[in-house]
Every structure is written in C-alpha cells, then in structure tokens.
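Side project, low priority. Logging it here so it doesn't get lost.
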Amino acid sequence: MINPNEITNKKFGVFMAAAFLAAYIPLTIAGLAYKGGNTILCLLLFRFISIFIPLIAVLIARLPFKALGWKPKFSFKYFLGALIGPQILSWIGAGIFFIFNKDAFGVSLDAYLAMLPAEARDAFASAGADPVPVLITVTVMSLTFLPISQILPSLGEEAGWRGVMYPFLKEKFGPVGGKLIGGVLWGVWHWPLVILGNYFYEGEYFGKPFLGPVMICITLCAFGILIDHFYEKTGCIWIPSLIHASMNASAVPLMFMLKNGNQHLSVLGPNCFGLIGCLPVIVLAVILLVTDAKKRA
C-alpha cells in the first residue's frame, strides 16, 4: 500500500485531474451512446477505456506504483469473501426489494434484450430462448467466471481509488471522513453515464434526473468502505479488484428478474445500485466504520 505521506497535495491534484478530466470525455460519449441504444460503443468506451484511466493517472502523477500491492497475498478467507461476499449481499438486497415490490418480479429476457442493438435483439427474440435456463446459467457465471474475468478492468479503477484517493483522503479527513468523501467522488466519476445515459438506472425512474446521481454516490460510498476494509486487511490490490468485479457481476442475473415496465423502480433495486438493493451493503459499511472506530479508540 502507498504511504499517504508520499502523496503530496500537488501529486494528488495531478492524479485527480488526470483521473477525472481525461475519463469524462469517453464517459460522456459512452453515456450518450447508451442513451442512443449503442450499447456496444458504450461498453467499449466505459469498460475498456475509461476504467483504466485512474490507473494511468497514478503513473502520470508519478506516485509509487509498485507500492500498490501487486504480489498476491493469498488468503482463502479474503479471496472467498471478495468473490461471493458482494453476491450474497446483493441477493439479500434483491430479496428485500421484491418483498416490497412483488409485482415487479418475473423471470424474463426483456430487460436484457432492451440493452441489445436492434438486430441482435430481433435475432435473440426470434430464437425463443427460455429465460429460466438463461437465468441459471448467468447466475452460475456471476458467481464464478464473470468476477474473475473482470479483475483486470476493475483493477483500472481500484489502483486509483483505493490505491491513491482513499489513502490521501483518510490522511487529510480521518478514516471515516476520507472514506465517505472518497465514495462520493467515486460516484461523481460515474455521473456522465448516469445523467446522460441512464446507465445503472433505466427508464423514467423515480426522482429523475436528480435521484440517480445521488444514489450512485450512496451505493458506492457503502461499497467503497467494504472494498477499502479488505484492502487495509490484505494490502493486496487484487483483492479490492475482485470485490469490485464481483459487485458488478452480481447485478447481471438480477437483470433477468425485473419485469419489463418496472424500470422506474431501478433507483430502488433489485440490484445493489438501488437504495433497497444496497441496504445490506450499507448496514455492513456502518458496522465496519463503527467497529474500526472502536478499535482505534
């Protein structure tokens, strides 16, 4: 882990400028592309370009890149927690969401098909695929293959946020204040996608366009506390990257459970980026903050 004393105000300013300003260009285009139905271009700009900019910003700011913790420190406990922890929390949150929104539940390919280009959507729909086997397959993949396959893209963000931004902010504003400010900034980094593209929150959701940007900050604040806790315990940047990847993967199977026409509920759930869907993560984040504060006291 980087010693926060090695992150000067000047270097942090250079890092933040590079991490945000450079990323906002492809993120803005990605948001507009997503809103226009060009999912492939959006994912290309977001998942293959923008997501690596925080890592590149670490190099631009000439921060101690090698100190991020590249040597894997295998611990089965933390590996398993990173792999399936976000999945369990997400499914609990989804269960709570559907308890209060029973009519929104239904195994369907509608939400997934809505994200595809028109040609692919028509071809997929004409095949008449059964949504239940698809859901089972995607669920198994989200618990195994998907998080592992997304470690490298997630590393692009984690090297910047948990590797540099959180240590600096915790040193300046204390452990609690630093993590909360860091979570808000992490959410703000995603704003072009949320505001311009309705990414994370589909359709004419409740409180649009203001609630979506607020919700992404709340959910990423909670997840940021969880991810940073694992990073502090292991000192290995691969563990937060795996949690980040698992967090994203957990939302995929839940996409097949929200009936089409209920996208206005997306700021609530069922995935972990909605308020109800994120409740278990928020509760755990509060517990971690309180526990850590008691240990320091």
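Brief comment: The chain has a mean pLDDT of 92.
Revisit when time allows.
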